[in-house]
Structure of Cold shock domain-containing protein:
Amino acid sequence: MPIGKVKFFDEEKGFGFIAGDDGEEVFLHASAVGEGDKVGPGTRVEYGVVDGRRGKAALSVRVLDRKLSAVRASRRPVEEMVVIVEDVMKLLDSVGEDLHKGHYPSNQMSRKVAQVLRKVADDLDA
């Protein structure tokens, strides 16, 4: 069975598209998604393919990574991420200044920076 990521999905209209790992794009109807599963952009899925009237369509879609799709669905808007990334850059600049002066930041500061970087990385990777 092919594997891919949901490229687009409109819950209201009940359809979207899957970009297969093989490069092929297939139509996705809500009725093909397993009961209790939710899909959104970036959700990794396994699916069957059938030739429909308008081209290839997904059949028997199974979500592969529920945690990832839940995280992706709750992602921050891009506008918020721009501000967060800019703040992280300022934070890293101050750490870089300390390092140029020949010393590491305090343990407390190091922990805070690491925590912020992990969180931002999770938001970007989702």
Observations:
- The chain has a mean pLDDT of 88.
- The chain has three helices and five strands.
